[in-house]
Write the structure tokens for this entry.
Amino acid sequence: MTSSALIAAVSAALASRVAAAGGVADIAESMDEAVAYLAGGTTRWRLILLWDGYGSHPAAREGMTTHQITAVIQQARGLPAAAGPKLLAFAERIEQVSAWIRAMRFPDGCEADQAGFSLADSRWLEAPPATRAHMLNFSLAAALPGFAETIPLVF
């Protein structure tokens, strides 16, 4: 499973849920780009997804790795009286996004752990004064894509 295929699949799975909940979803290429999105602020809530690299795996010699996916949730401070059910308290929004990602399952044959994503950690991020932001870090055990040829080394 390639990193681009993984982040595209996660984004596609979440797009309709985020929109139905009144939010907007973005994909960032790096944490720097995610921070740039945060700096722009938001009048709605926002989910920013990014592939954050590979992590260690006990079976690395056998071609296994862990994909690191980061989800950044940003929401305007305060709850407008007329917001309705789409605008949850921020802690509830964080839990909602976490549950969506942890509920994802992968089809047979895609070489990902059938248990899905595990939540590795989370932390608060600096955000513009009128908003708040929290980052959730997930990991997924998966096989690395094969390679087309072996490249011999000469000493």
